[in-house]
Design a protein that fits this description.
mainly beta; 54% strand; elongated
């Protein structure tokens, strides 16, 4: 039997590869997790006044707050960012013909998408831009008081899921070894897909039924001059958000 001697050079190369490859791989993998808070500003049909909400043209919500958890994973130059957040918005005011309207919405959001970072040599700041697909679950309630066309009381908003798109950007500041501050801004179109009009009480024909659901699609039963069915067009749910997030990791 012939034995092949192993050359010393081969051994040296093998040892170097075993030593270098783990270092190279670890240098290309990053992971961060954290949490933060933010302010939410409704825009378009999601903003407006309680009067506009009563008439079915807008949602009439005002500035709210957000709390969230965020994770960021980088692998060989590709960065994936994911977030789980809770937002709350509200507003109140007078209704046409007297009485008051109190509005509140809550949104649970799961979002994920790519992120692109830009290095600034000699500066502890890393700007970034990104986009994401998000699933939003809406809830809330409307409280009417002293309005002749709607019974006084609380109308819960039936839970609804919508799929949306978001675009974001910001800057990551180094706070020290393993800790960063992520200052971001984002714009979300939260009901791009899944718009619907629902009647929580199909056996009852009442104006209050339209307030019991998210109802971001046109009411198919609307008729000219009708008071019970009054949502005449689809409504978009968009919002601008500013956040501050403390991230910990590699």
């Amino acid at each position: 039997m012939v034995r092949h001697a192993v050359r010393p050079a081969t051994i040296v190369i093998a040892v170097l590869l075993l030593a270098v490859i783990p270092v190279a791989v670890s240098a290309q993998i990053t992971a961060q997790v954290g949490g933060g808070v933010g302010a939410v500003f409704p825009s378009g049909d999601y903003a407006g006044t309680p009067t506009e909400y009563y008439s079915g043209t807008k949602y009439g919500l005002s500035t709210g707050f957000n709390i969230h958890g965020k994770a960021r994973v980088g692998l060989f130059g590709f960065i994936l960012a994911a977030e789980l957040g809770y937002s709350s918005l509200s507003n109140s005011g007078d209704a046409p013909g007297g009485g008051t309207v109190e509005l509140s919405h809550s949104i649970i959001t799961i979002a994920a998408g790519p992120e692109f970072q830009f290095s600034l040599p000699a500066l502890p700041i890393t700007p970034y831009v990104g986009a994401n697909i998000q699933v939003n679950r809406f809830g809330g309630e409307t409280v009417f008081k002293g309005i002749s066309s709607v019974s006084s009381g609380t109308f819960p908003v039936e839970g609804a899921l919508r799929v949306g798109l978001g675009f974001n950007g910001g800057a990551i500041l180094s706070l020290g070894p393993g800790m960063k501050l992520d200052l971001g801004a984002s714009y979300a179109m939260m009901n791009m897909f899944g718009k619907a009009w629902t009647d929580p009480q199909p056996t009852k024909d009442d104006r209050g039924d339209s307030y019991g659901g998210l109802n971001d699609e046109k009411d198919l039963l609307i008729s000219a001059g009708g008071t019970k069915h009054f949502i005449g067009a689809a409504r978009s749910i968009n919002a601008l958000r500013f956040t501050a997030t403390v991230m910990i990791g590699l």
